[in-house]
Prior knowledge:
The protein has 153 residues and is an alpha+beta fold. Helix content is 18%, strand content 38%. The protein has helices at residues 34-46, 52-58, 78-85, and strands at 2-7, 14-20, 25-29, 50-51, 68-73, 91-93, 102-108, 111-118, 122-124, 128-129, 134-138, 145-148. The strands form three sheets. Strands 1-2-3-6 form a four-stranded mixed sheet, with no helix packed on it. A four-stranded mixed sheet has the order 4-11-12-9. A four-stranded antiparallel sheet has the order 8-7-5-10, with no helix packed on it. Strand 11 (134-138) and strand 12 (145-148) form a beta hairpin. It starts with a strand and ends in a 5-residue tail after the last strand. Mean pLDDT is 83; it is low at 1-23.
Amino acid sequence: MVVRRVSVGIMVGIVVAFAAGCGGNTTVSVVDDPTLESAFGAVLAEGQERTLGDLVQAADLQVEDWDRMYYFRVPLLMSEVNRILGTSGVVWQGLPTVGAEGMMVFMSEGRVVHAVVDRSPALALSGFATADSVVRPDTSGGLEKVGVEAKGR
């Protein structure tokens, strides 16, 4: 069994991904990260644009280098997440449901390095974002959310 742990800030959670037995499936745990959510909330509260990289740095997200962030709104299916990310066979533990807006998944060269439940504020992202993607308040449609600039699909 191969175990990889990625520590996320002070007492905010651990993502554990491991290859399980003879099937070789990887398991990813989706965790709460209030510090990261707070960074997105500050964009909405302050009404100022920032880059995604700045927010990740402000949240002191201690993950390996990441090159893309994907966002999935609830409800979501494990099979759909795997299809979009190209992560066939990954088992997702703790997929968000009622009480959550969605899930943020940080990737590095095609592998998941961090997965976070998004409780508030809601994010708006179609495709994927990178460190230089602009993050800004979005109040279109009368809903308060944080818009994240997409860099691709």
